[in-house]
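Letters spell out the chain; backbone shape is given numerically. Both lines appear below:
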Amino acid sequence: MGQKEFTEYIIPKVLDNFPQFKGSCVVKPNDIIDIEYKSNKGKLIFWLTTQDREITLGFTGDTECDWHTHMSLFGANTPDEELVGAMDFIDKIINNKKTIVHSSTQGYYPTDDTIDEIKEEREQDESLEFFKWADL
């Protein structure tokens, strides 16, 4: 599957599941589409891209890319497996089921760890704040 076919396969399925993203699509060169969805308070942008024929999810907050991940890191090897992983992840973010950490050294990132676990791992001079998507 080429880049154009991948994008044309992925984006409509994402938009069917998350219609609030419809006004957030950015067409890029080489048949890539990015979705850039700003939080209600404007503190964070959640993004998805089809670049390199894979689904990549990320946050833009303090920097252009505070955090990102590829669905292949979750064991997804096909476009359909990537979609399943991405849909689940997106649902957890935008429906406040996943904690989002703001680190003074790392920026924003999502976590499944408990707040206590994250505090135990922090650097000595690192400050942490914990949010849900609706808080941002």
